[in-house]
TrEMBL record, chains A, B, C, D:
Domain Gfo/Idh/MocA-like oxidoreductase N-terminal, residue spans: 2-89
Cited Pfam families: GFO_IDH_MocA, GFO_IDH_MocA_C3
Gene source species: Rhodanobacter lindaniclasticus
Family assignment from sequence similarity: Belongs to the Gfo/Idh/MocA family.
Protein name from the UniProt record: Inositol 2-dehydrogenase
Sections of the chain in a coiled coil: none
Length: 314, 314, 314, 314
């Protein structure tokens, strides 16, 4: 993710990308291309000119790096999830200052979804009743990724769980999830699932369905439908182009965006723009440590439900 | 429903609408407008010229009327559901001849959904993995309807349960349903719900989500998305017209079809066309008594799951 | 066209299809299927029970049949064009009563175009400035049709010329047309063209483009775009169904309506419904003899312009 | 246009933006923001480190600046039009080297239109027969702009004339244009028009319609429809986002792109990327001085036709 966030930080007028920390030698080219130099984490944290740190390390390093940066008084942007272990995340929570920690739930920064939220809040379709979130990855990850991923719910569904909380404005009190291994038997052999549906219910009775697959076969399907008392709002997929062909056989059009880097390009930029505001103390982080705790708690509930075939009550 | 099916039978070249049975005097005008005369059920069943009967009475009369017609050797078209009581339906099953009984699951006859099924069967998106069925009524029924309806699942979801079975080609082995009363508190006072989500799972791991509400606020939302190994197929809503307006404020377009009579006009016609073939012994009924039993069983499972907050295993 | 209008008249409650006049013996089956009997034109016109006549004969017979029917005091529905010879049409005009003659410009009855007109008149996009009419036939007519057709402009463009007059609410004062023979060289050998563009200009400066081809290769393309001072309104093509498929290669959808009978099914019905009102003296004909004269005059202007390569001033 | 091209040059890895030439003092901020310094044209042309020049001055200065740059041996990117006076453009032509001069016809670089061209060339719809180009500006320019603009055809339609030549792959031999002043009477008082339609015809009979207005009232309408022997390809408008709302009143969606900077953002970037290749001698300019001559010739033909009400033969 450093290859996504680094260039965005480099082009943000309110930020200056000073250091790249990466044990791999090939990162030097990346650093110099963006006007930065290579350094160790210790050097970075010891530099008083550094106001903020972007943590894009592997998931198992997120929490340690974040704690070190926070300890050094830096503003922190941290890729999700904070950690795969909810107990560790909860234990570390008191050491984080919500005003200085931005969690990488990029979808809240997406202009499409932001527009949907804005219309919902403006009451365009009345009071929200139900929600449908589609999050389908284009193609299954390499087998080696699965054991370190934390499983489908903590690694992938967690984005939707954050979106559900944000859009519903209310915490789920019941969670049901069911899952299958339909895409790649190897994923099953490694103890994970690749296809899932989750249903969340809030205290007021709002219902949210989450649709996940590791492999859509048709691109990166990212859609939201929000149903209110007087209508519905949907944010559709972004298509590669607007060219259509008509023949006697029918119409053909462009595929949807193939993967996250293209689909959420604007979201990733807006997220770093927001981090610049956080670093300079001009904005409260939009997605906080507490949001990370809540989404991880729900992800564990989903995983439990799918494993036991029972509804999980929160 | 007689006002839907009667005219379709009258215009079907293979059928002749001879009698209308209706205790209400005002039905005489309807009968004569379609070239039929009023008669009692006994008269109709005693007439050897009658090859088939369309049963469009109230739900509590369906089974009695169907048994009488079957007993008289007539081909039977019967509106869904056969009955609200699964035990009664199972008990009567031996008295029905599958070759002469057509159940009114109209959606299988819809050209949109038939096209989707045809493409699925042709393997256009590979092996089916998951399904998403949207069935949102435009506006809540009058309060007096609820006590006789059998509840949301038996009255409304039953259509989707039949579609799920048909499209997946495999029986669900697990059912989860959750529901709320968000549309009209009066529905809740009468012991029913108005908003629900169901998740079905088959033995091979296929997942199907059903989305229901009694009141969409934006018309009669009838959509299907079928996700396969290499892509997805969707049948979208039918819009009233193709006229769009563009201004600086954005685009506006026509609403979707407002209700079932318009949306499924072609399906209702195709269903009666098919019944003509059944009457004349030229086709096996597409939707059988056994399909009615299966859908009702699933509807009861959904109702139980929603009531107990637990997964139902079949 | 009798096979389009006859059944629509037979099903119209305000009309009774009593006679079919057709020299071909095979028309007897058609007549009896719609509850009519075969008769000669003389018999029909002598029958005092006959209030109106549908003239669907060949173009060269339209005017003679219409005059005979008008002379017998019948209301007349006449397929376009009245005649290919403008002088004959003008000479006969005094013998027609505008209140009893309906010309077959079916497109004005199309619900899509009627909606567009309604929004234009309601001022949704401000004052109309320009218009774009697309009228592309799916496939070239058989070669034998061309010599009797009157040529592309009188046979085909005439529909668009009527639509232009209706939608602009103002008569063209300048006409430019240019044409090619790109579809079938045989059409060229018979002295006609198969591909054309016309531009009309009114006194107030409104501009209208007409796009015509005898063979689209992708169905029956029937679209209108109306550009006003504050926006635009478009009536798009009607697609066969709403089913779309998405794969990595892109999306595919249904073709547009293949030909006039399907595309204008509702328009043809509405036209006959309107004729029933005309017959019973309850409505002024929507498309009059005078409209036929005006459209034919413009068609001759287009033909002249295309032939001479000059602008025609009216 | 310097504010569009400058940043794109600054971010292009193959270019280094060294100087900004601008008589206005406020340009200094722009220059320093992009790592450049202010200089006179003479200084720039005298600097042997300079390989290429972007000419974004006012139209009346384009040719003089281009000649100076070419004389100094620089590669030249020049905004369109080269000059408003065709005779001056023709006279200067021998002094330009086609291999070192890129004309700013940005639309050829648009990914939407490039995709359409690619599918046309691939024969997806057979041999091209006709073309429809829509180019509607969102809002009329300030009155002061009109006298220096060269008129609608040389200033605005010229883009479409270049696209027509590129897409048809064949030169027009006949041009017809008609125009009105419907948007702003002040434009008429200054001797110009604001609404036009042009029809081009090639020797083989291909037809191209161009639709222009200075004020659409609904954004920057930029569409192409290409009709071939077996189908059609269209490049549609780009919408601001994919969010749609459905209520009983119908659907609403986002407006199309409001203006050229947003709509052609990717095209402007691709154009400068291509200029980098031209500067380094790795590519032939895609849009040449000769293309500028041809488009200007056609623009003069359109202006003449609209003024005289006659067809112009080339």
């Amino acid at each position: 993710m450093g290859h996504v966030h680094g260039p965005n930080a480099a082009r943000q007028p309110g930020l200056h990308l000073k250091y790249v920390v990466d044990p791999r030698a090939e990162a030097a080219g990346f650093a110099s291309a963006h006007g930065a130099s290579m350094a160790s984490l210790e050097q970075v944290l010891a530099d008083p000119a550094i106001g903020g740190v972007l943590i894009c390390s592997t998931t198992d390093q997120h929490l340690g790096h974040a704690l070190a940066a926070v300890g050094a008084g830096k503003a922190v942007f941290c890729e999700k999830p904070i950690d795969l272990d909810l107990q560790k995340v909860l234990a570390a929570q008191p050491r984080f200052d919500d005003a200085r920690f931005l969690l990488g739930f990029n979808r809240r920064f997406d202009p499409q979804f932001a527009r949907l939220k804005q219309q919902l809040d403006a009451g365009v379709v009345g009071k929200l009743e139900t929600l449908h979130l589609v999050n389908h990855d284009p193609a299954a990850p390499p087998p080696g990724f699965i054991p370190t991923s934390g499983g489908l719910f903590k690694d992938f569904t967690i984005h939707d769980l954050d979106m559900a909380r944000w859009l519903m404005g209310e915490e789920p009190v019941e969670v049901y999830a069911t899952a299958s291994c339909l895409v790649d038997p190897e994923i099953g052999r490694q103890g994970d699932v690749d296809t899932a549906r989750c249903v969340l219910k809030t205290a007021s009775g709002r219902l949210c369905v989450i649709s996940n697959t590791r492999r859509s076969g048709y691109g990166y399907d990212q859609r939201i439908e929000a149903f209110g008392a007087t209508g519905m709002i949907r944010a559709g997929n972004v298509e590669r182009d607007t060219v259509h062909t008509l023949t006697d056989a029918g119409s053909t059009g462009a595929p949807i965006m193939p993967a996250f880097a293209e689909r959420y390009r604007d979201a990733y930029r807006a997220q770093i723009d927001h981090f610049a505001e956080v670093v300079h103390g001009r904005a409260e982080p939009f997605t906080s440590y507490a949001d990370g705790v809540a989404a991880l708690t729900l992800a564990e509930a989903c995983a439990w439900s799918a494993q036991h075939g029972e509804v999980f009550k929160l």
